[in-house]
Known about the structure:
The chain has helices at residues 2-24, 26-31, 82-94, 105-110, 112-120, 141-158, 178-186, 206-220, 232-247, 323-331, 347-352, 357-367, 370-379, 382-394, 396-408, 414-422, and strands at 44-48, 55-56, 71-77, 100-103, 124-127, 165-169, 190-192, 196-197, 223-228, 251-257. By secondary structure, it is of the alpha/beta class. The relative contact order is 0.10. Mean pLDDT is 78; it is low at 1-28, 377-410 and 412-423.
Amino acid sequence: MIGSSLVLRTRSWIVLCLGMLIVGSPAALAADCPGHPDALGTSRTLVVDPREHPLIGTMQYRETLPLKDHEVVLTFDDGPLPKYSNQVLQILADECIKATFFIIGSQAKANPEGVRKLVAAGHTVGTHSMDHPLTFDRMPIEKAEAEINGGIAWTSAAMTDPSQLAPFFRIPGLMRAEGVENYLISRGIQVWSADFPADDWRHVSSDRVYQLAIQRLEAKGKGILLLHDIQARTVAALPRIIRDLKARGYRIVHVVPATAERPATPTATVEWLLHPPTETTPIARWPRVPNFAFTQTRTLPAPALADLNAQAEHQPLLPLRTMAQANVAATLPVPGRALFAIPEGSVEVLLSTTLSRRAATRLAIAAEPPRAAAKDKAAKGKAGKAHAHRTAHAAPAALRHAAQAKSATPRPTRVATSVKKRA
Ligand SMILES: [Zn+2]
């Protein structure tokens, strides 16, 4: 009985583990896309809190989405325009890919059904102004606010459930301005730039759109791709882009805003950098230079003594001698004078640290008194030994010093030699 339940448990564990493996693998994503076994699929959903990271996209901002290597977020601007938007929707559906759409208010007004289709297909829907003016960087803030609010009003009006509108905004033409960004941030709306475009709004071929999308993605390794679902060249390039993403091992990430019921995916702040610093690359980029505002320094008042933590008027500004310092000094023995005496003959040792050996020897001989030199020549070290003997009794520390100096220098001095013989 116990044995059979153990077998059952073991089997259920194997089934569970296999299940986990299948869910986490790209093969399972394709299998989850009915009728499209070779689909790229959507590998995961990333929940973001716009208030925590309000400005994203390395084309313009320091931070971007916290994607892992080879993760891509697809974004489409300027729709919905039925002719092309519906084709883009179908291509994405065939690959089971979830993307983010930035809607123009006037497009939503003209084609509210297009907005509902996006929501029904499970895509994320943000906004892109009312009329797409390319003057956000210089228009009065009141006009910018009206543009932002018009886009939000018409896009949410097109939705069956307006709460489905994501607080995501992309400035038309990426014509960013601080006032616009601050207004959006104050409303808890995340400003989406991108990590790379594919130039699909320019008069280029669909081949070129495909090449640019892949080349720029490969250069960064991950990121937010900016496309437009109102262009024929984008519709033509999209299937090839998706096929290539799959062949190169890229994975699609679906981004949704955090809500009360759906908390943000836990991330570290450093993950919001495109290339976070690692142990092998301690500094990924230079720190930002702070913006100093230089005012008239002449008007600055001179600091008062009180500002420097000085307690009394006549107190010195240098650090005060503390009681701890005073006690340490009192307990240390006073060194004897002999400790600092330079024994005879060690001039050469001292000089040899900075001069060549030959030059040091020459200078040492010249420095010695002629009488001592003559005695040395005559008595071959006898006098030196006697002198060293006297010195050893008088100042053993000085001799130890000489012996240490001797061991450090390749050529022994006379004094050092005699000390060694006695030791
Ligand atoms: Zn646009």
